[in-house]
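ligand=adenosine monophosphate
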Amino acid sequence: MKVLVAVKRVVDFNVKVRVKADQTGVELANVKMSMNPFDEIAVEEAVRMKEAGKATEIIAVSMGPAACQETIRTALAMGADRGILVQTDAELQPLAVAKLLKAIVAKENPQLVVLGKQAIDDDSNQTGQMLAALLGWPQGTFASKVALDGGKAAVTREVDGGLETVSLTLPCIVTTDLRLNEPRYASLPNIMKAKKKPIETIAPDALGVDVAPRLVTLRVEEPAKRKGGTKLPDIPTLIDKLRNEAKVL
Ligand code: AMP
């Protein structure tokens, strides 16, 4: 069984993101970039499936500029077998990514596509769902457990009221939640081995996909600064502030 994993290059989760002076986006110059944390979980899950003898090949796919090669190399060092880079400097929105993934699915015929539940840069939480809709495949989103059995995948999902388990018929889409697993660190020998694994580079045009954005970003702003808290001397002062300042009583 082939497994396709989507890995996005994003601003590292430790970086304090700053808005560009012209408010058109966030500052990316000289900023550390890494694999989206939910995608690391997706790669880890696929590698565990291969180690358990349930998957035969893992293909890591990334879309974006040439530097996404590094993200694919990280996936290869974690245990993916080969990579596909859909290279473009154009802005890619979730619908475009889903269309590109659909074209790659048609080319590679995987039984399972694993994505992160969301990318920590745009926080869209859309690509997996859009891909499922475009392919007409079942989807298990926010997975905290995936069990493959024959032609089915039992996916336990984190929902508001607790956990829900759905049974999907393969081929299907799974998006990962934080508690699915703890991704491994790539060992040095595996990083070295990953350098020899193949990465195919394709242009969006070659896949026949129009990646033109459908949404326009009007303005990006810093969130409002939080005001500092104060310690009040007694309950009557608190009541007074709630009544006369916050006006909630
Ligand atoms: P989003 O819908 O943008 O929050 O992204 C959800 C998931 O879709 C990510 O965790 C990735 O698995 C995948 N994805 C989104 N954009 C890309 C991209 N440019 N390259 C590869 N995978 C992506």
